[in-house]
Amino acid sequence: MQAVLFLVNAVAAFFCTLFLLRFMMQLARVSFAGQIGDFVIKLTNWAVKPLRRIVPGVAGVDWASLIAALWLQLMLAGLLLALSPLPLAADAVGMLLMILMLAVRSLIQLTVYILIGALILQAVLSWVNPYSPVAPTVNQLVRPILAPIRRFVPPISGIDLSPLVAILLLQVVLMFV
Q1: What residues contact 64, with CB distance under 8 A and at least 6 apart?
Q2: How far is CA 166 from the centre of its chain?
Q3: Which pLDDT value is given to residue 90?
Q4: pLDDT score of 56
Q5: Is 154 strand, coil or helix?
Q6: Mean pLDDT, 10 residues at a time, over the chain (177 residues)?
Q7: Which residues 6+ apart lie within 8 Å of 78 measured at CB?
Q8: How many CB atoms are located within 10 Å of the residue 25 CB?
Q9: Can you give the pLDDT at residue 127?
Q10: How far apart are CA 67 and CA 74, in angstroms?
Q11: What is the pTM of this model?
């Protein structure tokens, strides 16, 4: 049973990551023309396109991608609670609130992990291969996070410490979620 739950969790996390990445890329106005954008679009269109008929984008924000990620996390949280061996003493409303809380918490954590991964990738690419085809996409994704930090933390001897500061701040966010 644990192996099945592990596989279900892994598949759900993979697709939630893609839905959140699509949402974050549109929010940061990242071009979908590269390899990452094409990959994300092709693997999420099956859910996002039908949802757009119900949940339209507002002010350039792709709410359908976020709703798809939330829906998947709600189903996963419900499944995990239903299969939990621990006795849960809650009524139907309490269970629904618990499932919603678990799903939102998981989405926030996954978003922070995506940002940390993108910051690490951006830092590594800036040192190893700044002309990689993936570099512009990653730079556009992390720019909204790094821009305010760079105002307070200038480069020291040509080394940009803003990704390190951003990762530390995101780790603090994880502590409170």
Answers
A1: 48, 51, 52, 54, 55, 56, 57
A2: 16
A3: 73
A4: 84
A5: coil
A6: 89 97 94 91 95 87 94 93 77 88 96 97 89 91 95 88 95 96
A7: 99
A8: 21
A9: 86
A10: 10
A11: 0.91
**What is d(CA 80, CA 8) in angstroms, rounded to the nearest whole number?**
10
Strands (E), the chain: none
Please report the pLDDT score of residue 159 as a whole number: 85
User: Which of 115-146 are b and which e, b meaning 16 or more Cβ less than 10 Å from the residue's Cβ?
Assistant: bbebbebbbebbeeeeeeeebbbbbbbbeebb
Question: Phi, psi (5° rounding) for residue 87?
Answer: -75, 130
DSSP-based helix, strand, coil % in the chain, nearest 5: 75, 0, 20
Rounded to whole angstroms, the Cα distance separating 71 from 19 reads 11
Tell me the HSE value of 89 on the side-chain side, using a 13 A CA sphere.
0
| Ordered alpha helix ranges (H), 28-91 | 35-54, 63-82
